[in-house]
Amino acid sequence: YYPSPNFEYLSEIQNAIAHKQILLIHYQNLKSELSIREIEAIGMIFYGLNWHIVAWCWLRHEYRDFRVDRIQKIGNTYK
To answer: What is the rounded distance in angstroms from the CA atom of residue 79 to the CA atom of residue 38?
Structure first.
């Protein structure tokens, strides 16, 4: 049994990539810790049965990989 891919937020993420907008996400990591991140997404990829965002993370000041199914809430900062 394979879980179905998570398609929530994909169009909003694609829109932010196309318009070079910064997204504000509430993200839950593997340890179930929540954080709020401002990210500049540069692309999305599907691997490991999940959608992933490759993005610059303003909190960590480096490029990071965010699993879309771990995003609890998403919004656009319009910066």
So the answer is: 10
